[in-house]
Amino acid sequence: MEVTEIVDLSLPVDDSTVVYPGDPRPRVHVHSTVARDGFNLLRLELGSQTGTHVDAPYHFDDTGARIDEVDLRRFAGPPVVVDATGMPPRGRITPAHLAPVRDRLRPGVVVLLRTGWTRHYGTPTWFAHPFLDAAACRELLAAGVRTIGVDAVNLDETPDDDHPGEGYPCHHLVAAVDGIIAENLTDLDRVEALVDPLVCLFPVRLSGADGAPVRAVAMSLRVGAGSGS
After folding, report:
1. What is the distance between the alpha carbons of residues 126 and 128, in angstroms, rounded to a whole number?
2. Could you state, in order of their start, the residue ranges of all structural domains in the chain?
3. For 56-67, what is each residue's pLDDT tens digit?
4. Is residue 157 left, alpha or beta, with left meaning phi > 0 and alpha meaning psi from -120 to 50?
5. Which CATH number is 2-12+47-222's, of 2.40.170.20, 3.40.930.10, 3.50.30.50, 3.40.50.620?
6. What strand order describes the sheet that includes 76-77?
């Protein structure tokens, strides 16, 4: 088996990484250098939801699985990309957006909500992203989908002084079925160009955590190439 193409779906993590309002800001410090210590080493300070990351059910449910307890199969699968581009700020991703891919929704797939909102990363508009409507979330879960990702900072609406939000309904719905949410993805427009793609969202194995950063990728695999089979 050979990886013939791979697409990075992750945002970089450094001191300038944008985080959800109120979350700890990442800090990257030089701890050791070759000149002084014989090797390079960084000291990292960051929240469990920093950058491109996944949420465990425990994030919104005290009785839910922690990130190191989740079945690893939740973090990989064939992608189904939902086109939600062209949305206005705080637009709802509704069941109508699911219609073109409804026949592909089934257990084991990774649903990726492509809003294109990464173009606003680093600006105030980043937090006025489109979000998944609870009715559409229920439809995905009823079809057996257990992993949902989005190229925005939040699957639900991010509240502010003028928009109080709705209490994170999709986070609660997904947690209730032991599902996984991936946020802060990027370059989802490149996924569908891959041949027979596989998406991988494997998190850092943080003990007892609500979530963890990931290096999210999509790849094309060719069976038999270079394997002697």
Report:
1. 6
2. 2-12+47-222
3. 999 999 999 999
4. beta
5. 3.50.30.50
6. 2-8, 217-222, 197-200, 76-77
- Give every CB contact of residue 68 below 8 A, 6+ residues apart in sequence: 205, 206, 207, 208, 209
In the prediction, which pLDDT does 1 show? 84
pLDDT tens-place string over residues 5-36: 999 999 999 999 999 999 999 999 999 999 99
Q: Is the pTM of this model over 0.90?
A: yes
Three-state secondary structure string covering the chain:
CEEEEEEECCCCCCCCCCCCCCCCCCEEEEEECHHHHCCCEEEEECCCCCCCEEECHHHCCCCCCCHHHCCHHHHEECEEEEECCCCCCCCEECHHHHHHHHHHCCCCCEEEEECCHHHHCCCHHHHHCCEECHHHHHHHHHCCCCEEEECCCCCCCCCCCCCCCCCCHHHHHHHHCCCEEEECCCCHHHCCCCCCEEEECCECCCCCCCEEEECCEEEEEECCCCCCC
**Do residues 146 and 178 make contact, with C-beta atoms less than 8 angstroms apart?**
yes
Residue 143 pLDDT > 50, yes or no?
yes
Phi/psi of residue 84, nearest 5 degrees: -125, 35
Over residues 182-212, the pLDDT tens digits come to 999 999 999 999 999 999 999 999 999 999 9
User: Any idea which residues carry the catalytic annotation?
Assistant: 59
